[in-house]
Every structure is written in C-alpha cells, then in structure tokens.
Description:
Elements: E1 2-9, E2 15-18, H1 20-26, E3 35-42, E4 47-53, H2 57-70, H3 87-97, E5 100-106, E6 109-110, E7 116-122, E8 130-138
Antiparallel strand pairs: 1-8, 2-7, 3-5, 3-8, 4-7, 5-6
Amino acid sequence: MWLQRTLRLRPRPRGFHLVTDEVLAAVPEIRQLRVGIVHIFIRHTSAALTLNENASPDVRRDFASWFDRAVPDGAAYFSHTLEGPDDMPAHIKASLLGSSVSFPVADGEPLLGTWQGIYLCEHRDHGGTRTVVVTVFGE
C-alpha cells in the first residue's frame, strides 16, 4: 500500500502541541498494514515536527522555555526582520527540530514508544493553519 494524504492542522498558539491522535485519525488505513512506515512532513519553514514525551505537560513547557531562551525573538543580530520579531527565530527553531518525522507500523499499530507522541512545534505567535503531508507505505 502507498497512501499520501494532506492534513490541515488548525491554528495553534506558539508552543509544542501533541497532534498524534489527529494525525492517526486522518490515516485509518494504518490499521490495515502488517508492516510499514508512516512519514509526516510539514510544509512550513517556521514550524516543525518532533517525536517526544507525550505524558507530562512540563516537557512541553520546558521545550518552549529552552528554545525561546536559546533563540530569542527580536535579537539585534537578525537581519531577516520584515515578517516580525518572531519570524527569524522561528526559522532557526524549525531547522533545529526538522520538518519531518517517521515511525514504523506493525500489525496495524504505530510503533511509537509508550511515552512518545507527535508534536507540532509552533514557533510563531500567530502561525496560522499548518499543512502536513502524511505518507504511508507498507503491506
């Protein structure tokens, strides 16, 4: 099976948002796979995807605190400022995290770790709707 679906994620505020259930609901065909791979790609340069701890909200807050301190909005050394003080930092944060994640599937189940979830990492104050492309392949 090869399947590709485009999913629009609703606008979210700056932060790290679990979207695991939303993504998996968009591709119920995963349940038909004996073995396979799910690949998710975000079509934006100021947001990212990552797989990480899905239980404690402290993890999401700590991620946000670290990234905002490491790459501050409005730093005087940024030249790319036409789209606002959060834009260039968002590009850097997105590059650090990456634009895609992949995970295996076996016997119709995503093989995410017990405490792993798919995060939409929104790095802008008002990033808007985000589009991801979900590709599923397997048998």
